[in-house]
TrEMBL record, chains A, B:
SUPFAM superfamilies: Ribulose-phoshate binding barrel. The active site is at 96 (proton donor). NCBIfam families: pyrF_sub2 (TIGR02127). This is Orotidine 5'-phosphate decarboxylase. It catalyses: orotidine 5'-phosphate + H(+) = UMP + CO2. Keywords: Decarboxylase, Lyase, Pyrimidine biosynthesis. It comes from Myroides pelagicus. The lineage of its organism: Bacteria, Pseudomonadati, Bacteroidota, Flavobacteriia, Flavobacteriales. CDD domains: OMP_decarboxylase_like (cd04725). Residues 16-254 form the Orotidine 5'-phosphate decarboxylase domain.
């Protein structure tokens, strides 16, 4: 999917909501556990109940890997279900991969070709030749970790390299990579005050923003500094939506939570688009 | 496996060789392509032919992921084959994962429990809480990326934070993590001159060293500065061994290449153990 197609969808739905599918067997409603593939059944129900309110879905790959081959089957069924039934939705493989060139190409092949995701999250530590194999895919996005929403972000990402924190060095250097127009960045919502500086370095790139909700970030604060004239934000919420209820009403409660966020987004977008 | 058990195996075999299983369908001997699971058949043949010369095997997870569910099946069969037939071998999931705490726990579960690997490679960019969930597993190792062997290593890893390159900051900080005795580090062989400084910071940890062979690193140079009194090195070779021949003699040629390295290692260890 192109950035323009994503933007068109955002305008149509008045939403820049991404729903994170971090699906843990110990947290899904008990009545689903008897199904043949409980994780896929759960995902299907959540997607069906919220697809008109969200523009993007982001399976967190670790949660599928943890169940081995069965987990990968659930993941494949989920992405196939989205691509078949809701092709307008933008899909993100939250995989945080990163390795040398020939290995990075294999990861890109896994997520872009075998799984047909629109984008994949990638870690920057190994530098240019670990990122460019992902960027080489046309109409796909590479979402590079810049500033994450966890406490450990202060260990290395905010360390000063000269006068600049490392995450700003990552933003600047990555803008020189081949096909940098295919880049998006992960920027955690728990640090809204950083968005102003980040937008000065990457005014045009989309930012994937985790940490609204369960991790304590505030939507208004993020939008104040993060929005650009193509919106330029995908706000992710995972647990706050998918685990809104652990009962048989989990679909309805997930929709309620998604609707609250979509309405807030619609208000924020008023007069801007 | 404990570090002591790994050391015992190194002494017994007079080898600190790790064989990387970066198995690409386009590179394995054509006569295997008709088999039911060509990747597993290839791995099994390589392991059977070299298990007495190497102490460790390192599947590069990307190469399995790229083939989707079938690839994960090949990977699972490979690790099960090693654990059943050669339980003394030390296994490394070269996955370079890294994510926030609850997600990192899921990755740890995938590789340590579902797959029963002895260790997994992890990226440091997201900091302490992305690494500690791996370190929490008893008798397992977390192999943290410090200085990698690719050109992109100079993008961020060697950038100065104050007076120290980032990879040294990663080494120092990670030594303060809970269960830091379960840490090993990835240090690329293409930069042998760095080993002296690295050993000053982490005298006791094992270092996993890719880049000998195909990537141009030299074994003697690495050992000169990298060896410690428990050897403390695992030298990885992938393509130089597993693709030594693309014909029906691939097993014999792989053994020849492994034997060359093992003999060189045996010479280096003389008088040291």
């Amino acid at each position: 999917m192109t950035t323009q197609q994503l933007f068109e969808q955002i305008k149509k739905k008045q939403s820049f909501l991404c729903i994170g599918l971090d699906v843990d067997m110990s947290k899904i409603p008990a009545h689903l556990l008897g199904e043949q593939d409980p994780i896929f059944s759960f995902n299907k129900a959540i997607i069906d109940a919220t697809h008109d309110l969200a523009v993007s879905y982001k399976p967190n790959i670790a949660f599928y890997e943890a169940y081995g081959i069965k987990g990968w089957e659930s993941l494949k069924k989920t992405i196939d279900y989205i691509n078949t039934n809701y092709p307008e939705l933008y899909t993100i493989a939250d995989a945080k991969r990163g390795d040398i060139g020939n290995t990075a190409s294999m990861y890109a092949k896994a997520f872009f070709e075998d799984m047909s995701f629109d984008s994949v999250t990638v870690a920057p530590y190994m530098g240019k030749d670990s990122v460019e194999p992902f960027l080489a895919f046309e109409d796909k996005h590479t979402i590079l970790l810049a500033l994450t929403s966890n406490q450990g972000a202060f260990d290395f990402q905010t360390q000063l390299v000269g006068t600049k924190p490392m995450y700003q060095v990552v933003l600047e250097k990555s803008q020189t990579y081949a096909n940098a127009e295919n880049l998006m960045y992960v920027v955690g919502a728990t640090k809204a005050e950083y968005f102003k500086e980040i937008r000065a370095i990457v005014p045009n790139n989309f930012l994937l923003v985790p940490g609204v909700g369960a991790q304590g970030g505030n939507l208004q604060d993020v939008c104040k500094y993060g929005l650009n004239d193509q919106v330029g934000l995908l706000i992710n919420s995972s647990r706050g939506i998918i685990y809104a209820s652990s009962g048989s009403d989990f679909k309805e409660k997930a929709r309620e939570q998604a609707l609250l966020l979509q309405r807030e987004m619609s208000e924020i977008l008023k007069g801007r688009l």
